């Protein structure tokens, strides 16, 4: 009996010890299959600690003779306060958090004028600031805080409660997030108030930071990474604008981003300028009305020092962050070249790099599992092997779910080879696109008329306003992967002309279930006056032929059997270019014009599909 009582007491004591140990066990991130898992202890929003502060930079861009401070908001699990837990940070910065300007008449540049001219002065709207402390944004917190991350937001310079001026790709937009990261790593000062002296420390940060975001919010992670700031371990830019020249110009041509006809860099400046109202007059005079006005050059569209300073490809020397890019092949706002050019450069630098492409439009993040593994590897240091996978490219195939990309060794597909196609007479209706070059001199003429849309021209049985050359009907699927390129020999009846090129899949499909990818394969635009260089142009001598070569937008698309691949050449594009008066004639020399397509399997695959 006594032994039995002793045994019960020992069991009770042991149970008490176990329960007490469990109660005192501190919450920690949990990992499974290389991914951070949702932790119950981090998952109750009511327990999250939310506070804001201002991080001081070393620059003054709003002319008040004080160093600019960036408004920062923090969301973290309570255990970072109650248990001394340190966690890595996922950081999102944006110019949009405090509101944007309204879509007023006259905000965009008028595009109804001749090339080389500038339209009338446009309307400059004011942004009515919104938002409250301490919450800058709620984006991403429900996704990452429960998985063992701290989420940090900041408003970029000249927006919200951040000091400074928006420069739309200027140096301060790279340095501002750098200073926030420096603060997260203990190298910069943060303060409780915009003008106060009480410091705030990021004692809960491990010093490992990752950044992500979409569009402009995806540009800022790249901007920060180009500074080489220590602690920024990984970035996942989604549809980022990596060059403002490539956003607002195309091969020397003034060209609007899709859906925003007449937008230019100063329009975007007005759109996001939500900072302190007292600083706006100085910012407008210094940035918009001087630096931008003198540098953006809507007359020629040429590449210059102003645009070069807003091209992140030129600034990648110091970049160290692991890069996972995401983009849509049918994004005609921030076009797919933006991600590819940076991915390709990062790959050449030897940085850990992967790319995810889908078949939709603007935006679209990689699958959560892919993002999770990327941040888990580089922020938590879990050896999940994602950077060592043999497949570096993940492409959502036509009609597949965005969460189910097909893996490939790389992008472009390493099995793709260039196939050169040539033009044969008949482009007013449908000329032939063949692998054999016609050596006979042949010329065909189109007449510019912007009243016809690209779709109108592509679906017309015949037209005087475009030239269309089509392949034989495909007997098998053809897989295009990479960057098509055109070389065009042309003359113009006027000293200046728009030049637009679409690669289309015919017959043109209609219906509610038809996606844009079913009809438009890819496209591009160019200024024939820049046939020698993007930095210099010369007027076209009427009747004289010039040869210009340029890339179309990157693509990875399977053109189905039964379709034809069509090359359409026209002048003004109603959705993208300036709208000069109709009547400019472009004459194309067919024997000196060609299209090169990157086709998986090369010429043999193409010949097999078209014979």
Low confidence ranges: 1-6, 10-23
The end-to-end span amounts to 96 Å
Query: For the residues shown, what is the average pLDDT?
Result: 95
Helix content: 10-25%
Q: What is the number of E strands?
A: 29
Task: Note the total helix count.
Answer: 13
Output the strand order for the largest sheet: 8-7-3-4-6-5-9-10-13-14-15-16
- Tell me the major beta sheet: 12 strands, mixed
**What Rg do the Cα atoms give?**
28 Å
Fraction in beta strands: 25-35%
**Structural class designation:** alpha+beta
Shape: globular
Describe the structure.
This protein is of the alpha+beta class and 611 residues long. The chain is 21% helix and 26% strand. It is built from 13 helices and 29 strands. A 12-stranded mixed beta sheet has the order 8-7-3-4-6-5-9-10-13-14-15-16, sandwiched between helices. Strands 17, 18, 19, 20, 22, 23, 24, 25, 27, 28 and 29 form an 11-stranded mixed beta sheet that branches. β7 and β8 (199-200) form a beta hairpin.
List the SSEs and their pairings.
Layout: H1 2-24, E1 30-32, E2 35-37, E3 49-56, E4 69-76, H2 79-82, E5 87-94, H3 141-144, E6 150-155, H4 172-184, E7 190-191, E8 199-200, E9 205-214, H5 216-225, E10 232-238, H6 244-248, E11 249-250, E12 253-254, H7 265-272, H8 280-295, H9 305-308, E13 322-328, H10 337-349, E14 353-358, H11 368-380, E15 393-395, E16 406-408, E17 416-423, E18 431-434, E19 443-447, H12 454-459, E20 467-470, E21 478-482, E22 485-492, E23 499-506, E24 520-526, E25 546-551, E26 555-559, E27 564-570, E28 585-589, E29 594-600, H13 602-610
Parallel strand pairs: 5-6, 5-9, 9-10, 10-13, 13-14, 14-15, 18-20
Antiparallel strand pairs: 1-2, 3-4, 3-7, 4-6, 7-8, 11-12, 15-16, 17-18, 17-29, 19-28, 20-27, 21-26, 22-25, 22-28, 22-29, 23-24, 23-27
């Amino acid at each position: 009996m006594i032994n039995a009582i002793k045994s019960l007491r020992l069991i009770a004591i042991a149970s008490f010890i176990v329960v007490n140990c469990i109660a005192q066990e501190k919450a920690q991130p949990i990992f499974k299959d290389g991914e951070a898992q949702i932790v119950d202890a981090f998952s109750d929003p009511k327990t999250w600690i939310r506070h804001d502060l201002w991080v001081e930079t070393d620059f003054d861009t709003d002319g008040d003779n004080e160093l600019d401070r960036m408004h920062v908001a923090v969301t973290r699990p309570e255990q970072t306060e109650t248990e001394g837990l340190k966690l890595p940070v996922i950081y999102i910065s944006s110019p949009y958090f405090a509101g944007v300007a309204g879509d007023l008449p006259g905000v965009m540049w008028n595009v109804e004028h001749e090339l080389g001219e500038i339209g009338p002065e446009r309307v400059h709207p004011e942004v009515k600031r919104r938002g409250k402390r301490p919450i800058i944004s709620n984006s991403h917190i429900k996704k990452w805080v429960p998985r063992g991350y701290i989420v940090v937001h900041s408003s970029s310079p000249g927006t919200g409660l951040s000091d400074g001026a928006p420069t739309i790709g200027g140096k301060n937009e790279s340095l501002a997030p750098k200073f926030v990261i420096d603060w997260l790593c203990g190298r910069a000062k943060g303060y409780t108030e915009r003008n106060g002296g009480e410091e705030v420390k990021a004692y809960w940060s491990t010093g490992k930071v990752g950044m992500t975001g979409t569009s402009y919010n995806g540009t800022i992670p790249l901007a920060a990474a180009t500074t080489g700031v220590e602690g920024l371990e990984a970035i996942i830019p989604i549809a980022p604008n990596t060059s403002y020249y490539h956003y607002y110009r195309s091969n020397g041509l003034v060209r609007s981003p899709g859906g925003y006809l007449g937008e230019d860099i100063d329009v975007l400046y007005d759109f996001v300028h939500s900072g302190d109202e007292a600083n706006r007059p100085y910012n407008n005079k210094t940035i918009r009305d001087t630096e931008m006005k003198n540098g953006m050059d809507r007359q020629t569209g040429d590449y210059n020092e102003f645009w070069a300073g807003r091209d992140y490809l030129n600034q990648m020397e110091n970049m160290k962050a692991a890069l996972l890019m995401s983009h849509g092949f049918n994004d005609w706002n921030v076009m797919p070249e933006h991600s590819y050019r940076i991915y390709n450069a990062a790959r050449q630098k030897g940085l850990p790099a992967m790319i995810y492409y889908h078949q939709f439009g603007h935006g679209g993040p990689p699958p959560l599992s892919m993002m999770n593994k990327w941040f888990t590897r580089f922020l938590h240091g879990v050896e999940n092997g994602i950077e060592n996978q043999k497949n570096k490219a993940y492409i959502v195939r036509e009609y597949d779910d965005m969460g189910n990309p097909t893996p490939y060794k790389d992008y472009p597909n390493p099995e793709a080879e260039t196939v050169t196609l040539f033009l044969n007479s008949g482009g007013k209706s449908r000329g032939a696109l063949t692998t054999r070059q016609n050596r006979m001199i042949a010329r065909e003429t189109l007449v510019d008329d912007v009243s016809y849309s690209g779709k109108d021209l592509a679906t017309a049985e015949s037209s005087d306003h475009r030239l269309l050359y089509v392949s034989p009907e495909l007997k098998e699927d053809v897989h295009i992967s990479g960057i098509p390129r055109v070389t065009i020999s042309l003359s113009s009846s006027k000293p200046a002309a728009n030049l637009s090129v679409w690669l289309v899949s015919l017959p043109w499909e209609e219906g509610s279930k038809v996606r844009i990818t079913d009809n438009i394969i890819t496209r591009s635009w160019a200024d024939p006056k820049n046939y020698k260089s993007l930095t210099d142009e010369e007027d076209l001598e009427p009747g004289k032929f010039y040869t210009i070569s340029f890339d179309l937008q990157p693509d990875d698309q399977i053109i189905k059997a039964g379709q034809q691949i069509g090359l359409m050449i026209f002048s003004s594009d109603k959705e993208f270019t300036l709208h000069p008066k109709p009547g400019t004639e472009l004459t194309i020399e067919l024997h000196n014009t060609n299209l090169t397509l990157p086709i998986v399997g090369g010429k043999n695959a193409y010949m097999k599909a078209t014979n």
